[in-house]
Design a protein that fits this description.
The chain is mainly beta and about 230 residues long. The chain has 3 helices and 12 strands; from the N terminus they run H-E-E-E-E-E-E-E-E-H-H-E-E-E-E.
Length: about 230
């Protein structure tokens, strides 16, 4: 394999989110960090959890296949998670509500008081690449990269990678800070919530939360790492 072949095999699309920069409307289809503004009438803010994000998938420029039946995700986080970050799966510290339709939703005003809430602006990108160690590179491609590094003085991060997006995003690759975790093909990576200086949200030391989803089982796995 040549460098262009490797790049073509690895590159992925994603929807990334920019924090703030617009006047909030609080309308449907407006995604947020630090705020959940919609639910079904009978739903309440889950006890012991804080509203982390609202992510409207409907009409986004890119959504992974396993999430394409979902129109809205709302994420709530238990702050006890920060005492358990070395666990293999952090999903028990999240309440993740997936809505396959926006019909019947009512407005709420649930805000995480330790985050400066901002609307999120979606942007399509087509050049997301995996980090090296556990980031999602198939073993045969990894072998080819190592061969090129040894025989042709190719550098993975200089000659192959275009961008690694360590921001809020749907799709693409997890932007691992340390060695990554793999939950297997049945749990593909779908979503990342990142440390966000504008929102005053820091995951220990500029870390990220990574979300993996099995559509058939309707189950989530969550990982975290930081610098």
């Amino acid at each position: 394999m040549k460098v262009d072949d490797i790049k073509a095999q690895l590159v992925r699309q994603a929807t990334i989110f920019e924090t703030g920069g617009i006047r909030p409307t609080y309308d449907l289809l407006e995604s947020w960090i630090g705020f959940v503004g919609w639910s079904l009438p009978a739903e309440e803010c889950p006890q012991g959890f804080l509203p982390l994000a609202s992510l409207f998938l409907k009409e986004l420029p890119f959504v992974p296949t396993s999430l394409q039946h979902i129109e809205l995700l709302t994420l709530f986080m238990n702050e006890e998670i920060f005492d358990h970050l070395i666990e293999d799966d952090l999903s028990r510290f999240f309440e993740i509500r997936a809505y396959t339709s926006l019909e019947g939703l009512v407005q709420q005003n649930w805000q995480y008081d330790r985050i400066r809430a901002f609307p999120l602006i979606p942007k399509w990108i087509d050049n997301d690449y995996p980090t090296w160690d556990g980031g999602g590179i198939p073993s045969d491609v990894e072998d080819e990269i190592l061969r090129l590094e040894h025989e042709e003085d190719v550098e993975y991060f200089d000659d192959i990678v275009e961008e690694i997006y360590a921001v809020h995003k749907i799709g693409g690759y997890p932007a691992f800070c340390q060695s990554g975790r793999d939950y297997g093909e049945e749990f593909p990576f779908v979503l990342q919530i990142a440390s966000d200086g504008k929102a005053y949200f820091n995951i220990v030391d500029n870390g990220n939360f990574y979300f993996f989803f099995n559509r058939e089982l309707n189950e989530w796995r969550v990982d975290c790492d930081f610098y």
